[in-house]
Amino acid sequence: MSFKKINASEINENSFKLIGKDWMLVTAGNSNKLNTMTASWGGVGVLWNKNVAFSFIRPQRYTLKFMEENDYYTLSFFSDEYKKALTFCGRNSGRDCDKIKETGLTALFDENAPYFDEAKLVLVCKKLYVQDMTVECFVDKSLINNNYPDKDYHKVFIGEIVKVLSK
User: Fold this and answer.
1) Which element (helix H / strand E) includes 130?
2) Residue 124 and which of 15, 66, 118, 134 are 20 to 30 A apart at CA?
3) Which residues have a Cβ under 8 Å from the Cβ of 52 and sit 6 or more positions away?
4) Host H or E run for residue 108
5) 110 near 59, Cβ under 8 Å?
6) Using an 8 Å Cβ cutoff, are 25 and 38 in contact?
7) Cα(95)–Cα(99) distance, rounded to whole angstroms?
8) Can you give the pLDDT at residue 102?
9) Whole domain around residue 145: which residue ranges?
10) pLDDT tier at 110 (50, 70, 90 boundaries)?
11) What is the average pLDDT score of the chain?
């Protein structure tokens, strides 16, 4: 089944389920070199009169380098049958293995960013804003102890959703 381009307002799936339960692959790079990682934190909404996606990446993640070096990235969502592949991509680093080869996923390339043929939904995002999270900005300090025992605060990426691909 091939992808069709739709408007962001036509996405019929629950974003809380897509991100928090089903997970997603955050992917950046190009046809020569890319990396992907599994994420279950993030969101979608409207900011600055644009449809946007919020992504969070810890400093030790190899994907961070690709996110910083490229203007575009994708968020790919999959059906349950790919949970094992997403688990692998979350537990292993692209520094140490070829995640795409290991999982059997097929990388495709939009004119701006890589995504996966096996995905059911893809958000192509253009970076608008990037910021490091800092301890001073946490209002609820219990979030620090519960989520950052190693003080490895995420970098926040806000990207404009410039294209939505759906199957």
Assistant:
1) strand 121-132
2) 134
3) 44, 45, 46, 125, 128, 158, 159, 160, 161
4) strand 107-109
5) no
6) yes
7) 9
8) 95
9) 4-166
10) confident
11) 96
Dig out the tokens for 137 from the structure.
Answer: 């900005």
Nearest to 26 by CA among 69, 70, 76: 76
Closest CA to 47 of 151, 138, 141, 129: 129
pTM comes to 0.95
Q: Structurally, how many domains does the chain consist of?
A: 1
Residue 156 pLDDT grade (very low, low, confident, very high; cuts 50, 70, 90): very high
The CATH number for 158's domain is: 2.30.110.10
pLDDT tens-digit series, residues 2-25: 999 999 999 999 999 999 999 999
Q: Where are the beta strands (DSSP E) in 11-101?
A: 24-29, 34-39, 42-47, 50-57, 72-77
